[in-house]
User: What shape does this take?
Amino acid sequence: MQWIEIKVVYEPDDNLMVDELIAAVFEDADTGGVAVERPDIEPDEGWDPGPVSRPDHFAVKGFIPSDENAEATLALIEQGLERLKNQGIVLSLHTRTFAEEDWSETWKEHFWPENITARLVVKPTWRDYDAKPGESVIEIDPGMAFGTGTHPTTRMCVTLIERYLKKDDSFLDIGTGSGILLIAAHILGAGPMTGTDLDMTAVETAEKNLILNRVPRDSFTLVHGHLAEQVKTSFKVVAANILAEVIVGLVPDLHKVTEKGGLFICSGILAEKAAMVSDSLTAHGFTILETLVQDSWAAMVAVFSQGI
Assistant: This one.
């Protein structure tokens, strides 16, 4: 099978998270996951990146099958990128076609082990890392699913899970991607876990990563579906690392999957939209407990304090 790599090279802007704006364009076109290349990221101390070279440009890459739908998908992406250009973002679009057997190599060049909290280290499966005392290592092969763990949105989400999850708490991850939040929750002591994703490839990737990290098969369930629509039970802790607008759309139905007194942890929110999310949560029976902000991104945790 042939694949098309869609690479958007951009000029960084101190006032905008350009990579996430571009990633949102890919998401709107339903391409699945993206890879972000940043030449300014340094490897963590204590491991050797070997012969891998740094990327030359800031870029976001997505991948789509080279099939009858490719032309329409490319057109949607071009339209979205044109809107970003109209906002003053400098970018250029590049494509290439390659065989499926070359797929895995496209993800490996710039993904290195990195601490996402003091306790948790995310490590690509093809790298070596000697864990320090007290560290737990999450092995990740993102494949075509979103979620390497190194972006501030994931870091903050995991930080809040680490801070608020109690032993044996049931845990729901809405939009699980690579499964990294499920793995982190398991390491941190979660009880029964469920992950959902609209992308079947993400569901398959998450399952592989959970098994790779020795998460017992009978401790988790993965559901292919939109947000929490297919989830029929409620959970003590619910997490969603997705866009602010998607979170706001999810909030009216959160009471169906969140226990009374349960927690909702959300991230992927541009800091300027944090008030929009918190206002929506408050209006639907949640009380904000804490908000984190890092690199123009926000994450928050709220308790479901009021019946609907």
Observations:
- The radius of gyration is 19 Å.
- The helical segments are 18-28, 70-86, 105-108, 152-164, 180-187, 200-212, 244-250, 274-283.
- The CA atoms of residues 104 and 143 lie 7 Å apart.
- Residues 43-53 have pLDDT under 50 and may be disordered.
